[in-house]
Amino acid sequence: MAEFIRIYNDNPNEKEIAKVVEILREGGLVIYPTDTVYGLGCDITNTKALEKIARFKGIKLEKANFSFVCADLSNLSDYVKQIDSSTFKILKKALPGPYTFILPGSNNLPKDFKKKKTVGIRIPDNNIARIIVERLGNPIVSTSIYDEDDLIEYTTDPELIFEKWQNRVDAVIDGGYGDNVASTVIDLSGDEPVVVREGKGSVDIF
């Protein structure tokens, strides 16, 4: 059964963060808060954990389009081909924030993502998520937690999330109520920005 770990966004407890990082390092799956909906994440370098997330979503790992959740823009070149200054300006303006940006993948991608031509990069405006990634030392691969309910697409209450998924993940972080609107997805891999999905982030800034 999963651990239920309470962490406050405005003052994350280092001991609890360390506990989550340890679970991720050991190949565990963690449900965690972002600036949009709750996400399901694992360590980008752990193949077994990545396969578990793919099974969780009912898809093959090589077909999965997961987001890479980063702490900031400093390690972008590890995962993304060199980008021009106008693209970088867009990223700098929007992040951290409720956006996922599709960018051309670099040759340095972790082995499980080598064949990917593009990757989705996410830097949420949420201290808990960013500090976990920072302490882990590399991105977490992430996907949204959907609800089977036709009326509510995303569960916002961490206790209900825990109740539902406790037997399929290793930890659920209670970071307060989540949002029920997903991130806005913008494709920056071509010549012009393309809005793939309009979500919480305003598209007017583009």
Describe this structure in words.
GO terms for molecular function: double-stranded RNA binding. It holds the Pfam family Sua5_yciO_yrdC. This is YrdC-like domain-containing protein. The protein is α/β, with parallel strands linked by helices. Helix 1 packs across helix 4 (about 125-135). The chain has a single domain (about 5-195), classed as DHBP synthase, CATH 3.90.870. The chain is built from five helices and ten strands, in the order E-H-E-E-H-E-H-E-E-H-E-H-E-E-E.
Largest sheet: 10 strands, mixed
Q: Helices and strands: which structural class?
A: alpha/beta
User: Which CATH architecture?
Assistant: Alpha-Beta Complex
Shape: globular
User: Helices and strands, in N-to-C order?
Assistant: EHEEHEHEEHEHEEE
Mean of residue pLDDT values: 93
Strand content: 15-25%
Spatial arrangement of strands, main beta sheet? 1-8-2-3-7-4-6-5-9-10
CATH top level class name: Alpha Beta
The name of the CATH topology is: DHBP synthase
Total helical elements = 5
Helix proportion of residues, in percent?
Answer: 10-25%
Provide the gyration radius in Å: 16 Å
Pfam family, one: Sua5_yciO_yrdC
Protein name: YrdC-like domain-containing protein
InterPro entries: DHBP_synth_RibB-like_a/b_dom, Sua5-like_dom, SUA5_domain
GO molecular function, one term: double-stranded RNA binding
